[in-house]
Design a protein that fits this description.
single chain, alpha/beta, 8-stranded mixed sheet, 4-stranded antiparallel sheet
């Protein structure tokens, strides 16, 4: 019978020596293998486990309910966030009201790159927006994620090294395996109709599109924020506000102000 992965997370109520060993022994007695394990935030531990039947997991859950030293918080088929939490030892922050919005700070760039790389590996259309202030690492993270996913990236509009506004692609670039990167401010504020037509063509491709500054991109266009599958917010710290007034005034209408990562 094919073995299946599960995610187990528990909160430590009484931290005592040998607790993890006891949990490991219990899993062994139930013929459940530990794939990986890590501390998740404060006082919680996450495990990826592998079992040959759901009955094993139900028995495990029933036994753990009687253990007073821990409290099971999650036991389910692993989601992407679960696998990354075990891998990095922390959970991706998710907006409680808007489930498609995920928040990162600059010291979590490794987690962000890993998260986007997993999204990039998935086939078909995917529209991802990324918000953030200048020079916080947006474009570099997208490029690094493309490398991790073994995908080619194409700048349709960008200000990474110099202002880029593509008006056409060569035949080989119309490839659904590519990652298309669009700077929403450049495309909406500085581009001509030829560029906008190219953007429309790319948006129809069954490929991954990453839009920096999605809120500006959807202004006065046929697209809306609801069209995005994921919204990623990247800040220097948790308290930083993401505003567009400074970016528009200082960069879009004065070409000399374009920075290294906009």
């Amino acid at each position: 019978m094919e073995r299946k992965d599960w995610y187990l997370e528990y909160e430590i109520i009484i931290d005592r020596p040998g607790l993890l060993g006891d949990i490991s022994s219990l899993l062994g007695m139930l013929s459940i293998n530990i794939v990986s394990i890590n501390g998740i935030d404060r006082g919680r531990r996450g495990l990826l486990i592998r079992a040959s039947s759901e009955e094993q997991i139900l028995r495990l859950e029933s036994i753990l309910e009687t253990v007073e030293t821990i409290k099971v918080t999650k036991i389910r088929e692993p989601k992407l966030r679960d696998r990354l939490a075990v891998r990095h030892g922390r959970y991706i922050q998710r907006d409680m009201d808007d489930k498609k919005t995920f928040r990162f700070v600059r010291d979590e760039l490794g987690l962000l790159v890993d998260f986007m790389a997993e999204l990039f590996k998935q086939e078909g259309h995917k529209l991802i927006g990324i918000r953030g202030m200048p020079r916080v690492g947006k474009t570099e993270s997208v490029v690094a994620s493309s490398v991790c996913a073994n995908k080619k990236w194409l700048f349709v509009s960008s200000t990474l090294l110099k202002q880029t506004i593509r008006k056409e692609l060569i035949k080989d670039e119309y490839n659904s395996n590519n990652i298309f990167i669009i700077d929403g401010i450049v495309s909406r504020k500085r581009a001509d109709e030829k560029h906008l037509q190219l953007v429309r063509e790319i948006m129809r491709l069954p490929a991954v599109k990453v839009i920096e500054h999605p809120d500006i991109f959807v202004q006065h266009s046929e697209y809306s924020i609801e069209d995005f599958d994921y919204i990623i917010e990247l800040r220097n710290d948790r308290e930083e506000l993401i505003t567009y007034e400074t970016m528009e005034n200082n960069s879009l209408f004065n070409e000399q102000e374009f920075g290294f990562d906009f």
